[in-house]
C-alpha cells in the first residue's frame, strides 16, 4: 500500500494494494451473479468479528464485558444508506491497512492461524478469502468503515473508499468497540433501499446465523437450529417443528436422518423423507446448503446423490466455502466424500427401519420406493445394501423382498430354460382381464406402476441371475411362461390358415400381426398384445421425455386368435360374409376393450352392434 500523511498528521491517503498472486480469488469475486450476495458477505463478516471476540474471551485474552453480542442491519431510505453494525472485535487503523487495503489478505485466516493451537472450533469463523467485504461495491458508490478495536487504549478509525483504488483513513469518534460498515447505495442499486427486499435477503441468508441478527427492531434469526444440537437432546416433535419452520405448507415428513460427522470432513444436517406422489420430480430447492450456518445455495447437485434430490432438509459443512461454484462442487474431493457419506447414511437408516418394524416400513414403501429404486439404478454401492430392503408389491397388496419373492414364485413361474419369469402389470384396472387369466393359472402378478419402474425392471434383470420380467399382457400366458407344453387345437392346420386369412381380410391393418393359437377355452377368443421389448422401450422413451427410435415407431400389435374358443369356431363355420365380418369385428373389439384401446367411433360402432345382437 502506498500512502502519504497530510500536514496535520491525522489522515492517511493512499492506494489499495492488490497482490498479483491473489488475483484469482479477486476474479472469482466477480462471478457473483446476484448482487444481493453483498448483504450475506457483510453480515457474515460482522458475525465473524463477534465470534472472534467470544473466542478471545474464552482464551483469557479479553477480560472486558461481552455484553449483548449481536449484529444490526439498519436502512436509512432518506440518506440512501445501509449500515451493518457489530459489537465484536473491531479493528485498529493498522488492521484496516492490513485487512481492508490489501485485498484478499483474510483477517479470518490470519486469526485462525494465530490461534490454531488453542482451539479446534474452526466452525465459528466464517470468512475464507477476505474478499467478502468488497462485494459491497457491487451496490454501493461509496463505503465507510467506522471501527474501534477491543484492545485497551485503541483509537477509533474511519475508512472511506469510492470503489476505486484510492481510500482515506482518518481518526474517528467512536467510544464503543465494534464496527459499522456504511454503504452509500449507488443509483443503479436502489432496489435494495426497500425494507421488504432487505428482509427477504436476510431471511434467505441469515436465518440460522449463530449470532443474533437484528433488523427493523426484531431479531430475525434462530441462532441454534436443531442440526447444531446432539440427536440425544432432541425429540420427534423438535424435528417436526423444525420441518414446519422450513416448509410451512408441506405435509408431515415420513422420517428423518440426523447427519453428524467430523472426520474425514465436517458435516452436520438433517434430511427429511417427504411424502411424494408417483412422479419423478427433482425439486432442487428443497435441500439447503449452509457453511457454518450461512446459507450458500439450494442447488445441491453433486453434494447430494441424484436419487436423494427429492429429500428436504439442511446440510451444513465448513469444508464448503461461501464463494462456492458449480465447478468447485464437481471437482472438490470433500464434496465427493460428503456425497458418499450421505448415500451410506441413508442406506443404513432405511435398513434399520426395515429390520426394526417391517410392517411400518411396508406402510411407508409407496412413498419411499421411488428413492430406493432410483438409488438402485444410480449407485451400485447403494444397491448392495438396498437389495435387502427393496420391496416388490403384487396386485393383492402383499410385499416381498427380492429373495422372498423368488422363493414364492419359483416353483410355478420357471420356464423351460430355467429362467424365472416375473409377471407384472402397470395398470391394475386396465389390464384386469389379463391379470385374472394369470391368477387362474396360479401365477402371481406384480404391480409395477411407479414412473421409474421400466428402468428399475431393466436394472433388476441385469443384477439378478436368470430373471426376466414380462408385462402380463405382452403375450399369451403359454408364451409368457413357456414351459414347453403345447395345447391341442380343435382346428386342423387348414382351418387355422383359413381363419387367419379371414381376420387379416376383415381387419385390413398392416400394423397388426394375426396368429391363430390353441389356448384354453376359458381364455378370451381374441387377445391383443404388444411384445415386451417394444413396450418397455416405448415406456422408457416416454419417461425420458425424448423421442427415441422405438418411440417414433408405429405401434405393431399382435392379434392372437384362440383356436379353441367356441366363438372362433362359429366364425369359421359362418357362411354369410357380412355376419362373419360382424363376428370378427365383435371379438376384435372385445379384445380392444380389454386393453382400454376401444375409443371414439369404433366404440360407438361396437355398442350399436352389441345392442343389435341382444335385440
UniProtKB/TrEMBL annotation:
Record-annotated Histidine kinase/HSP90-like ATPase domain positions: 34-175
UniProt: ATP binding residues: 41, 45, 86, 91, 106-107, 179, 326
Source taxon at top rank: Bacteria
Assigned keywords, A-Z: ATP-binding, Chaperone, Cytoplasm, Nucleotide-binding, Stress response
Molecular-function GO terms, alphabetical: ATP binding; ATP hydrolysis activity; ATP-dependent protein folding chaperone; unfolded protein binding
SUPFAM superfamilies tied to this protein: ATPase domain of HSP90 chaperone/DNA topoisomerase II/histidine kinase, HSP90 C-terminal domain, Ribosomal protein S5 domain 2-like
Family per similarity comment: Belongs to the heat shock protein 90 family.
Protein name: Chaperone protein HtpG
Source species of the chain: Spirosoma taeanense
The gene coding this protein: htpG
Amino acid at each position: 500500500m502506498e500512502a502519504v500523511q497530510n500536514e496535520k498528521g491525522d489522515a492517511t491517503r493512499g492506494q489499495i494494494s492488490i497482490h498479483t498472486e491473489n488475483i484469482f480469488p479477486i476474479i472469482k469475486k466477480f462471478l457473483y451473479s446476484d448482487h444481493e450476495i453483498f448483504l450475506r458477505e457483510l453480515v457474515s463478516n460482522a458475525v465473524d468479528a463477534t465470534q472472534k471476540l467470544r473466542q478471545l474471551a474464552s482464551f483469557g485474552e479479553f477480560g472486558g464485558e461481552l455484553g449483548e453480542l449481536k449484529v444490526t442491519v439498519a436502512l436509512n431510505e432518506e440518506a440512501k444508506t445501509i449500515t451493518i453494525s457489530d459489537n465484536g472485535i473491531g479493528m485498529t487503523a493498522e488492521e484496516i491497512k492490513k485487512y481492508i487495503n490489501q485485498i484478499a489478505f483474510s483477517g479470518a485466516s490470519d486469526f485462525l492461524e494465530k490461534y490454531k493451537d488453542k482451539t479446534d472450533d474452526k466452525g465459528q469463523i466464517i470468512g475464507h478469502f477476505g474478499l467478502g467485504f468488497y462485494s459491497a461495491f457491487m451496490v454501493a458508490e461509496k463505503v465507510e468503515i467506522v471501527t474501534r478495536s477491543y484492545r485497551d487504549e485503541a483509537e477509533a478509525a474511519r475508512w472511506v473508499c469510492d470503489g476505486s483504488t484510492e481510500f482515506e483513513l482518518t481518526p474517528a469518534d467512536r467510544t464503543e468497540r465494534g464496527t459499522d460498515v456504511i454503504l452509500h447505495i449507488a443509483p443503479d442499486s436502489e432496489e435494495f433501499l426497500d425494507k421488504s427486499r432487505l428482509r427477504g435477503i436476510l431471511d434467505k441468508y441469515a436465518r440460522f446465523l449463530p449470532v443474533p441478527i437484528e433488523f427493523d427492531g426484531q431479531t430475525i434469526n434462530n441462532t441454534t437450529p436443531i442440526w447444531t444440537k446432539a440427536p440425544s437432546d432432541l425429540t420427534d416433535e423438535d424435528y417436526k417443528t423444525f420441518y414446519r419452520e422450513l416448509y410451512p405448507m408441506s405435509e408431515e415428513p415420513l422420517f428423518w436422518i440426523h447427519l453428524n460427522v467430523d472426520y474425514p470432513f465436517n458435516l452436520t444436517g438433517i434430511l427429511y423423507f417427504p411424502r411424494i406422489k408417483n412422479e419423478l420430480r427433482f425439486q432442487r430447492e428443497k435441500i439447503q446448503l449452509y457453511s457454518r450456518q450461512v446459507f450458500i445455495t439450494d442447488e445441491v447437485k453433486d453434494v447430494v446423490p441424484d436419487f436423494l434430490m427429492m429429500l428436504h432438509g439442511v446440510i451444513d459443512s465448513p469444508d464448503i466455502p461461501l464463494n462456492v461454484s458449480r465447478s468447485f462442487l464437481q471437482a472438490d474431493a470433500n464434496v465427493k466424500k460428503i456425497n458418499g457419506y450421505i448415500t451410506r447414511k441413508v442406506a443404513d437408516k432405511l435398513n434399520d427401519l426395515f429390520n426394526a418394524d417391517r410392517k411400518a416400513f411396508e406402510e411407508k414403501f409407496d412413498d419411499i420406493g421411488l428413492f430406493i429404486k432410483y438409488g438402485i439404478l444410480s449407485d451400485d454401492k447403494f444397491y448392495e445394501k438396498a437389495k435387502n430392503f427393496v420391496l416388490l408389491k403384487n396386485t393383492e397388496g402383499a410385499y416381498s423382498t427380492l429373495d422372498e419373492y423368488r422363493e414364492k414364485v419359483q416353483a410355478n413361474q420357471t420356464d423351460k430354460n430355467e429362467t424365472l419369469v416375473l409377471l407384472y402389470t402397470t395398470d391394475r384396472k386396465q389390464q384386469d382381464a389379463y391379470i385374472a387369466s394369470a391368477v387362474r393359472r396360479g401365477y402371481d402378478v406384480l404391480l409395477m406402476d411407479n414412473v421409474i419402474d421400466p428402468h428399475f425392471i431393466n436394472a433388476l434383470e441385469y443384477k439378478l441371475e436368470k430373471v426376466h420380467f414380462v408385462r402380463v399382457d405382452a403375450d399369451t400366458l403359454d408364451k409368457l411362461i413357456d414351459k414347453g407344453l403345447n395345447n391341442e387345437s380343435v382346428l386342423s392346420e387348414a382351418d387355422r390358415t383359413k381363419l387367419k386369412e379371414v381376420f387379416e381380410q376383415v381387419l385390413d391393418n398392416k400394423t397388426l400381426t394375426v396368429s391363430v393359437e390353441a389356448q384354453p377355452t376359458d381364455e378370451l377368443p381374441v387377445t391383443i398384445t404388444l411384445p415386451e421389448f417394444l413396450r418397455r422401450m416405448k415406456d422408457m422413451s416416454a419417461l425420458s421425455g425424448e423421442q427415441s427410435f422405438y418411440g417414433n415407431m408405429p405401434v405393431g400389435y399382435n392379434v392372437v386368435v384362440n383356436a379353441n374358443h367356441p366363438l372362433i369356431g362359429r366364425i369359421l363355420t359362418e357362411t354369410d360374409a357380412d355376419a362373419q365380418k360382424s363376428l370378427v369385428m365383435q371379438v376384435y373389439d372385445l379384445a380392444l376393450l380389454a386393453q382400454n384401446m376401444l375409443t371414439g367411433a369404433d366404440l360407438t360402432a361396437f355398442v350399436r352392434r352389441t345392442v343389435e345382437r341382444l335385440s
